[in-house]
Amino acid sequence: MNVHQVLSQFQAQGLETCFHDRHINSQIYAGLNGRNWSLKEYEARGGYQALRKILGQDGGEGLTQDQVIATVKESGLRGRGGAGFPTGLKWSFMPRQFPGQKYLVCNSDEGEPGTCKDRDILQFNPHIVIEGMAIAAYAMGISVGYNYIHGEIFQTYERFEEALEEARAAGYLGNHIMGSGFNFQLHAAHGFGAYICGEETALLESLEGKKGQPRFKPPFPASFGLYGKPTTINNTETFAAVPWIIRNGGQAYLECGKPNNGGTKIFSISGDVERPGNYEIPMGTPFAKLLELAGGVRKGRQLKAVIPGGSSAPVLPANIMMDITMDYDAISKAGSMLGSGAVIVMDDTRCMVKSLQRLSYFYQHESCGQCTPCREGTGWLWRMVDRIENGQGRESDLALLDNVAENIMGRTICALGDAAAMPVRGMLKHFRHEFEHHITHKTCMVPAYV
Amino acid sequence: MSSQTVQAAALSAQTQARFAREVAKYPADQKQSAVMACLSIVQQEQGHVSPEAELAVAHYLGMAPMAVHEVTTFYNMYNQQPVGQFKINVCTNLPCQLRDGGKALAHLCDKLGVEVGGTTADGMFTLQPGECMGACADAPVLLVNDRTMCSFMSHDKLDQLIDGLRSAEGQA
Questions:
Q1: Following CA atoms B76, B81, B85, B90 in sequence, which dihedral angle do they give, to the nearest 10 degrees?
Q2: Predicted TM-score of the model (pTM)
């Protein structure tokens, strides 16, 4: 075998993470099998009908820009990247009559630990993102877009480029799309290993060919974005939700979920479950049901804790998790956040100090160094958690951890500082006794850990 | 990097064609946007990004050499020094750690006889830890030479990967 053949044996086929028939009412992942990503097969599933509909190419009258935005507002779709901002509202902020160039950007820089949903969308259903972006571009009067894809999933970037070629050849991208007056050019770009570029203004800097250091807001991207021009940025899954909404109506999408939390959501489940993977389920599904879909806790062990929305979200103990539903409002009320939908499950053999040690290492490694509280504070947090884990903790460390975390929060340009502080505060709130035990006894409370 | 002593590397016609394809994605006055892609192309072709290559990219895109160097040094995946023929990055972030990402890295250390960050004596493998690759449900995962991800890497599969790559290169 040559090198390519050797490597190809180990590439994920999506069977475990995406094509497992354990989604509930799936829209984005519906009908996928790993082989049917191409344009022809996307069309056979009803693909590009939403774009035809708004352009009046399906025999109807078409939709105005205002009608598209109103439909997305009605759907209750909220940003799937982490912040949960209402998508229709974001689109309405775009100055449509701005005379110069405007840009549309898709944030596929999926690097929030625990998250792998956008990879499966782009790999196995790339045209749904292209169609969603084309609809968004039409609604906001934008003629150029970029999809910035996480550098680590390079093969997915190449797949998306192939899909772009298909869409251009079929007339779904380019000038006079399907004979209309609508023009939209879409290109793919890739990162190369920087978590911070998932932050939207850092992503814009990176797309401009610079270090990915976040910009101060305001001005927001809607007024000063890519190359200083009005720009709208949405997450991959957000764009992927749009074609279904246009085809079926905003109200139908809203009814898939629950009020203020419309639609389906893809949750990436990792850690101590029998079947890690992506699960597309209606918003508001109980966590207990999601855990069941993922095969339950691994090896029949007891659930201890869950980080419900990516590593930046505060951890929640099992008893709280088993009582909540998976939607923005319920998780927020429980003291954490839905974030990117990454659910990191930990069983009763896991040491919370060791877990936080790894996360704190990550944040100090990925701090861009621009703001002092984050640059210095994330390193300080990691050094403290590291020494507690290694039996060198001091009595005063817990108060100091609280203090440093509190002094990072809200004092940095972007949310990475908060993202580093929130896991610390969550761990100390719910599992303080484990940290105290480590400091007092110089050993771990739980038996043998990885 | 001392730009006085560095001579820009020559870019082959093929490399320039690949650069041109990236540059074409951006407005004519925003060629700098292609720098990430150009540097990754250089790395794929030469194994790492040398000061000479940075200077060539700077000239091609009309950028200050230091602006290119800022990009090379900011993003984790650019190799600023030569690495082995196969650079392997194993994810050890929390979701992977919970599913033996750390053990996978340790197993490769044993198998290759190197420390984390090290290169085998024959120059074939460089082993590094990695941060989240966005494939958490596939853990343990690793990247080979930045562009190929390998999933569900049990110890048996790790052995097959290393043995397979050695065999493909005629060094089994």
A1: -30
A2: 0.97
Per-residue model confidence as pLDDT tens digits over A123-141: 999 999 999 999 999 999 9
B41 at A interface, C-beta within 8 A: no
A98 with A10: CB under 8 angstroms? Answer: no
End-to-end CA distance of chain A: 35
- How remote is the C-alpha of B167 from its chain's centroid? 22
- The values of phi and psi at residue B130, to 5°, are -140, 160
Q: Please indicate whether, in this complex, the C-beta atoms of B75 and A194 are within 8 angstroms of each other.
A: yes
List, edge to edge, every strand of the sheet that includes B125-130. B125-130, B86-91, B142-144, B148-150
Q: Which helix (H) or strand (E) holds B91?
A: strand B86-91
User: Please, what is the average pLDDT of chain A?
Assistant: 96
Q: What interface predicted TM-score (ipTM) does this complex get?
A: 0.96
Write the single-letter amino acid at A321: M
Output phi, psi for A235, to 5 deg: -75, 155
Q: Calculate how close chain A gets to B151, using CA atoms only, in Å.
A: 6
A110 touches chain B (CB under 8 A): yes
Task: Classify A146 as helix, strand or coil.
Answer: strand
Probe site for chain B from A8, A10, A196 (most B CB atoms < 10 A): A10
Interatomic CA distance for residues A183 and A179, integer angstroms: 10
